[in-house]
Model the fold of this input.
Amino acid sequence: MITRSIILQASARVLQPVILFFSLVVLVRGHDEPGGGFVGGLAAAAGLVLHAIAYGYDSARRALRIDTRAIAALGLAIVIIAAFAPLVFGDPLLRAEWATLPLGELGEISLGTPLFFDAGVYLVVYGSALTIVFSLGRE
Amino acid sequence: MSRARLARIPLVLVPAALAVALAVSAPSLVAGRAFERVLPWAPSAGLETALRLDALSGLFALIVCAIGALVAGYAGAYFDDDHALRRFDRLLALFTFAMLALVLADDVFFLYFAWELTSVASFFLIGFDHERAEARDAARHALLVTVAGGLALLAGLVMLSTAAGTTRISEIVARGDIVRAHELYRPAFFTIAVAAFTKSAQVPFHSWLPRAMEAPTPASAYLHAATMVKAGVFLLARFAPALAGTPEWTALVAPIGGITAVVGAARAIGETRFKPALAYSTVAALGLVTLLLGIGTTYAIAAAMLYVVAHALYKGALFLHAGVVQHQAHAKDAETVGGMARALPHSAVAALLAGASMAGVPATLGFLAKDLAYAALLPDAAYAPLASAFVASALFVAVAMAVAARPLLGPRRGIPDDVGRPPAWLWGPPLLLAALGVVAGVAPALVTPLVAAAASLVAARAVPASALVFHGVGVELALSVVTLVVGVAVFAARAHLRRAGAALSRALHLGPASGYEATMGALARVAKVQTRVLQNGILRVYTLVTLVVIAVVVAIAIAHAPPPDLTGALDDLQPRQVGLGAFIIAAALFAVIAAERFAAVAALGAVGFGVGALFLDLGAPDLAMTQFVVEALSVVVFVLAFRRLPRLPLLSSSATRSRDALVALGFGALVSALALAAARTNPDPSVSAWFLEQSLPAAHGHNVVNVILTDFRSVDTLGETIVVATAGFGVFALLRLRARSGEAR
Done:
């Protein structure tokens, strides 16, 4: 029913991976700069929605390969695991656990449960937003 | 024995072992010792499961455990269906636990918890045959009354612990003088009394108990005769040292108990069916105990405690006997059967012994309790309590003869020819209970020490065990004899009395529970009207109601608050912010007047982007970023959703639209005023300063917004994540469902 625009399709093909990459950058840098899991997930969803507008929803669903609800569920599982993980170390629920990895010349990197937590949020938002859009977009 | 039946052996053995342990420890309880144990429950909320075993709780716990074991064994023979038995067992175990917790509780909130748990267990047991509407209605009736009483109890316990300054029951009881002098005494006493009256089926809350006879007979015997209904009496007894002795106590408790005794006994003689007749006489007995507690003299309290034991023994036995009759002979009406003694010999002995105790025939515990009650009430100048005790006792004689004795004796009629001999577990428990009532009547020393010790705790002064035994020949004995004679006369005239009673209640339109029915009917009508007006499923109405309510409430709050200082509120405004604001307002106006849906959506998106730009300008990049992406996605969602809708017709009248415009403008003005006022007030700066300081060292992050989301307030985020996922799944399910039902059509 939608007349496909060549320009839109061409730009979507280029933009989709860029947006996805950008959204991951937003996710990872969120702890220090503006960004985070919520906006990252939304941005990633927007990327696939662009694809859907250009090529149709069935094509976008096929391109994703995984069911959107499974993504949301996976995200929820990660969030809950990150929330309960501190209990294993004898700490209260949701206490952030940090580990510092030395990277030699490159300095060091701090890894902590908040990143996993945020990644879970990212997946939940991504999966849920796409679930809503795809449900509405069904023919 | 099937495996299912073997698996339930602990259900009998555990309470039996507890009962033995209690009986063994009884001498030290009698000596005044108390065993205390405090287990953590929710320490951060100041809640703990404080348990206390003293003579009073020990007496009730002994009844709970001993009868619990017998009823569990009885139920195994009573239920033919393994599935029903399993269901019953779980509820029985839940109830036994709840009832034990109730009597042993030494913390007011733990007491409340156990109290409501017994109501819930009772609800499920009354509605056990949940496929019958009568059982469901009766269960709901009992739940509504007892849980309403439970709420009163909660309020009362809170006030009581406030007055006493502790939640520990033993300490509240010890501070009786402080409690009685406290200004909260009256409301606390009143609410606790209401709770006790609902649970113990006192007038005017009594009608749920006879209806509770919809429960399986073992449950009726255990909950609605021997234990749970005594929880109200127990409550009064437990708190008597703190609450009793005031004019309020005497003025409320004794009359309610007296009225209940007479009303219950009169209703009992009006019933011909086994279980309702026994239920009404239970109401009367509870009234008698309440009356005695209300009188509050040493003898009266001793009589009340003795009555609790005597009643548990004979009423438990009679109910279990009624279950045997129903199970073996399928008879429900006591007037239509006769000569059952030959078919059910063991059970007949049990019923006759228990009936004798109920009638107060000498050499039974029932006689001793009645004798002591008369002894307690005689010296009083007030004749009303004595008269109600006399009337109730005389009617008990008649009920015992009508329900227990007469169906057993005489020529055989009204029962099938092939009545099988019941298994030992059906006749054993009632026989044991009935026999105990007679043994204790002959050798009262078996029970009097513990009963006297419990009465001492209730009366807050020593009650010697010797006070509880037979008083010898005197006015009391004469009165007992008169009671028996009058009772026999009532029994002989019961048919006439029933006709007169039925005519009277028809004339007064006082059917059972008519007040309850009227209340429930009114409730249903109110629910229907408010559903039609408020919960009609139209989203616009919900939105309108919500907005108007919020606006009115906030406006009232603002009107009562000191007017905020708005001078200089707009001084920091930059020209570009004013421009953005104008753009947002223009876009919003366009969204309202747009004739096309898509134009309206685009305008709404413009509003969102304008707000995002404002966030950016005010230095909130995180917020702005999220706002931009959300706006982009919501425009897509809107477009997708609108694609499915028909073309935009004008659905609302101009009157509706002006009303909506008025509400919208009013709400907008209110929110604007709130925002301005909020910007003027200085929130505690230490909060944001703390977050800024702690962000890097505590959470390894420079972005305070994200640190707050993922670390400091991550519980919020966890909840919101679940909300987002739920929304996604919800939309999916909703649209999938619509698509499916569309296909089906």
